[in-house]
Prior knowledge:
The protein starts with 7 loop residues before the first helix and ends in a 7-residue tail after the last strand. It has helices at residues 8-31, 38-51, 119-136, 145-158, and strands at 55-56, 68-72, 75-77, 92-101, 104-113, 162-163, 169-171, 178-182, 199-202, 205-207, 213-215, 222-224, 230-232, 235-238, 245-246. The protein is of the alpha+beta class. The protein has one domain (8-249): Creatine Amidinohydrolase (Alpha-Beta Complex). The chain is globular, with a radius of gyration of 17 Å. The strands form 4 sheets. A 5-stranded antiparallel β-sheet has the order 8-7-9-14-15. Helix content is 28%, strand content 25%.
Amino acid sequence: MAVTIKSARELNLMREAGKILNYTLRTLEREIHPGMSTADIDRIGEETIRSFGCVPSFLHYNGYPASICVSVNDEVVHGIPDRHRILKEGDIVSLDAGVIYKGYHSDAARTVAVGTVSEEARQLIDVTRQSFFEGIKYARAGNHLNDICKAIASFAESHGYGVVRDLVGHGIGTHLHEDPEVPNFDMNRRGIRLRPGMTLAIEPMINMGTWEVEWLDDDWTVVTADGELSAHYENTVLITDGEPEIFTLNDSL
């Protein structure tokens, strides 16, 4: 699949998908509290997405059994919601979700504190989020893809964190995952030249300890190899001639 340049019509549909996903994630952030199950999060998220007449991107995608990936503490991504998994004060929980609006996808993730968390956990969440914004300083036409990747890694690693290498961001549009892959680490090559109309899901996955990860027996849940905390922050981004546009931070609903 080649990297696609989206038309104005396509971008408007993706913009709408992004607004709805941002609203969904903000709803979940407000709802999260100690004592709720990760299945509760999935239910609220799916109900919110469907209330707009949209479809959750993740439900049944390659067999994934839920609408919201809910990953707790040392779970990096793709945690499967479970009514027996109860959030506790001090947990951190990563929410990853997608919306399909009239055939076009948005994809975004946030890591949320459950009640009061440790200073170390709060810093990990904040640095992971900021690493995204350090990366998209370079998300503009004329730059190369690796300019984004290097900036993300440089910022996260300057805080002593591990940058996950086994999972990467991606292009997005009529498919949830399109070309190009968007690593959060230096590819040691320039990568494609960025052009207006490209849409990318840029998603730092940052670990407090080692960058290495493992897969659990459910074949979905990815955890840190050393059991340390992990955080995830993602948005769907449009490359323009000037500043990038972040579809999934649009509050205009």
